[in-house]
Amino acid sequence: MQKYGELLRELLEKRGIIDPVQAEIFLNPDYKRDLHDPFLMKDMEKACVRLYEAIDNNEKIIIYADYDCDGIPGAVILVDLLKEIKYKNYEVYIPQRNSEGYGLNLEAIKQFTKSEVKLLITIDLGITAVAEVAQAEVDGIDVIITDHHLPQDVLPRAYAILNPKVDDYSEKMLCGSGVIFKFAQGFIKKYGEYFKTKEGAEKWMLDMAGLATLSDMVPLLGENRALAYFGLKVLRKSPRPGLQKLLAKINIDQKYLTEDDVGFMITPRLNAASRMDDPMRAFELLATGDEVEAGRLADHLSKINDERKSIVAGIMREINKKFEKREMREVIVVGSPDWRVGVLGLVAGKISDEYQKPVFVWGKDENDCIKGSCRSDGSVSIVELMTETRESFIDFGGHELAGGFTVHSDKIHFLEEVLSNNFKKIISADLPLTKGEVPKAEGVFDVKLTLGEVNLKNWKEIEKLAPFGLGNPKPVFFFEGVKIEKIKKFGKNGSGEHLEIIFSDGGGAKAKAISFFSNHDSFETKLSEGLNVNLLASFDLSRFRGREELRLRVEDIM
User: Fold this and answer.
1) Phi/psi-derived region of residue 539, left when phi > 0, alpha when psi is between -120 and 50, beta in every other case
2) Do 120 and 100 form a contact (C-beta atoms < 8 A)?
């Protein structure tokens, strides 16, 4: 470990990495070493052979992908594979979030049967679709499920299932696009020579696998770290016109694209398609080769994302009003028939972050069904909680930290009580964390620093640990007894919704810090110039308008 700087050594130790070999693997991802053989997935051989037969017999294939920023990039990966081998007899189907909801549905399967589909490949869904898969098989459609969600007691009787959570594949926490990437990788490995595909052709698909891995809240460790790391490298060079136009629209320099840009800027715009309009718009943006269409779609997604923001802000105002007069239980359930179902996951996430509890938020969809989204603060697996409460739900699904549900209208008003009681049962049983669940971080900061140590040399050390995300959070530093020199508000069109703060310490060092969506009252101490405080912050390199500036991003001020 001596070859690394002191700061990097400390940060590695905080992550439990003390062995030089482990450190080398973590800091220097290697494509060949870190990506497992796709044929370690139980049904990979069967899935590859079935896809080959479909291509050989010119059978009609449906790519049935989820409507979010995991399923949609996954659909692009599979389309890229079919384009690579010049196969044209396929269609992409993405269900409408608001009217059809998540997963395979029988209405869609009826349509496929009429149009003589012979093979259906799911992406990021299907592992709980027992009845739907049975219907497809009866209708003469073979189903290959590619998914990463938790299965229920009975598995669908699909032709093949690729899901690391149901077989012995060692990377249990792949996202949906990660699984379909393994399928593409396996197919090219097996049949690449036959189709005259260049070796490593799947590497250009890593941009989509990386985009989804960074968007879908899976731990960025093991194979996921490699997918995110190489995914970002390919995203920075990706020739996709839609991606380039979207980045230009939001003033991001493609060659410096970061995981924060993906999480805060790209993902919300792609997800806006299903929340506010039609998820196919996001797929078309990523898949199109046409510059004009790419520009039009980038504008459209940015516009509906702005509309989405104002709807979420309106719902949050309503909720804050409701919460003034209510007692909080172990689980929060809140809803209104007027709320748009497509945005409720964002609302649940905001409430869960603020109150540090599991949260269920519901609205009514276009078919008058009570539907919603839930998020966990990490204290419990949200799927386990819903499974324990299954009598209250018509349908539910998801993974440890996030899910969706449909509720019987006569049970919605008792849902908070039932969930809270079951939460207490699960917690008191003190079950060990389910495999892949993310334990709460110990301690609130990584290392104590002075403002004088906020420099590019240390930034370069920290950057070696990137990409950051779940399972590998951005390091947070503690700055003790620093003085607030100056506070300035800033924001889009003079909105003043963010703060820029200049801190100084006794040694004459100064550092600029920013705090997004904050004001003078956002912290436990009201901020004022001249005040001495303790600061928790992470390093942030801004490249706004092409100018590099190292600053801090405030986590908390005490």
Assistant:
1) beta
2) no
DSSP, residue by residue, 138-166: HTT-EEEEE--SPP-SS----SEEE-TTT
Q: How many CB atoms lie within 10 A of CB 497?
A: 13
pLDDT digits (tens, 9 = 90+) for 346-386: 999 999 988 999 999 999 887 788 999 999 998 999 999 99
- The tokens for 262 are 């993906």
Contact 406, 412 (CB under 8 A): no
Contact criterion met (CB below 8 Å) for 552 and 539: yes
Residue whose tokens read 């409507």: 67
| 477's tokens | 């530093």
Closest CA to 381 of 436, 428, 463: 436
Position 430 confidence tier, pLDDT thresholds 50, 70, 90: low
Element (H, E) at 423: helix 415-428
pTM listed for this prediction: 0.89
Cα separation, 269 vs 380, whole angstroms = 29
Q: Distance between CA 103 and CA 197 in Å, rounded?
A: 32
Structure-token pair, residue 149? 């969600």
The helix or strand, by DSSP H or E, that contains position 336, with its residue range, turns out to be: none
- Whole-number Å distance between alpha carbons of 204 and 259: 18
- CA atoms of 358 and 381, how far apart (whole Å): 9
DSSP three-state, residue 364: strand
The overall longest dimension of the chain from CA atoms, in Å, is: 76
Q: Identify which of 33, 38, 35, 37 has the alpha carbon closest to the alpha carbon of residue 162.
A: 38
Q: Is 532 helix (H, G, I), strand (E, B) or coil?
A: strand
Residue-wise pLDDT tens digits, 444-485: 899 999 999 999 999 999 999 999 998 999 999 999 999 999
Q: Are strands 510-515 and 160-162 parallel, antiparallel or unpaired?
A: unpaired
- For the record, the structure tokens of 537 come out as 């912050």
